Automatic annotation (TrEMBL):
This is Cupin type-1 domain-containing protein. Keywords: Metal-binding, Signal. It comes from Tetradesmus obliquus (Green alga). InterPro entries: Cupin_1, GPI/OXD, RmlC-like_jellyroll, RmlC_Cupin_sf. Pfam families: Cupin_1. The keyword Ligase does not apply. GO terms for molecular function: metal ion binding. The keyword Aminoacyl-tRNA synthetase does not apply. PANTHER family: OXALATE-BINDING PROTEIN, SLL1358 PROTEIN. SUPFAM superfamilies: RmlC-like cupins (SSF51182).
Amino acid sequence: MKLNRLPVAHAVAAAMTLLLLVHAAVADKYTEAFSKVPWQEFPGGRFKASTNATLSASTIAGALFQLKPGGLRELHWHDVAEWAVVIDGACMGTATDESKLHPSDTWNFTAGDLWYFPANVPHSIVGLGPSGCTYITGYNAPDFNELTSFSASSWLATVPLATLAQALGISTAAAQRILDGNAGGKPSFIPQGSLRQMLAQAPSLPVQFPKLIHRYPLLQNTHEVVNADGSYVNMADVTRFPVATDMSGAIVRIAPGGMRQLHWHLNFDEWQFVINGTLEVGVFTEPGQSAGGVLQPGDLGFAPRGSGHYLRNIGQQMAHVVLIFNAGLFTNVDVGNFLGTVPPAYVAASLNISDAAAREIDYSLGGFAPAQLPPSQ
């Protein structure tokens, strides 16, 4: 009897297609082509957001903002913490605390500077000249979108006329103008203001750092890990940025061919935004299974706490990545620490290799593994 190969071929093809679809679905949980997400335009700038609706495994939400000079991320607050880093340009941020001794902070931010606003601390950001500001934000809640923030415009538009006039100490005619200008309670979000007037009326900038200031100049750090190839982790956690008790972050630079070492975090998740470069990513999701993909500039990745993961630069230039964590104190376990703290015999038995092979492993590779040289001919 001759075997009918056509149905078998169709079955194999269908199975392979299903396998690819499942792999893609798993990868999509941990990566997002954020660079392809369209911008939402406003008079003073534009923005786009990522939540667990599009990066489904993530416990951290994020957003990318571009403000024009005088573009204002309006006076607002939200019930989640916000950690942000300026990617390009300059902006001025103001946060208002409940403390009577230090009621507000106003600072200028440039590329590499961070801010952190605890939950429900009101704040605003304005783009400065000559080109405005680009910044990336992270939030310690997976489904948060900045469009749902509480704001001055959306709140005051809901207050009865007489109540609003009484609260602000103004006439009902003046209160009516506020209501008319914000009819429907839709937030202004990023209105366009007069930068000249804003700067003329801005509070004086501090001349020294208060103990719990909301700004941190990340680029002034001494890098925790610097490899001979130029790779580094530039970290800011609560030990350096005391106000950031619930979130931390870093800018990572990875040399061509190099990789952020296989590692995991004990108590927090990692949210990744690629500034530039092309990176291979992998996330160990369950025994025998990893999700992987390639991230381009503007794309996102995510690794849950306890999941082994890595970033490998497969491009030809230095790659820079923003990492945001939903905990104030940074810790991690690198594969070299994991394997190198036990006798080689343990490693040999665990990996089903010889004791000699276990001794060949370089357990000294810490935060980064350098590019491998091609085998000699």
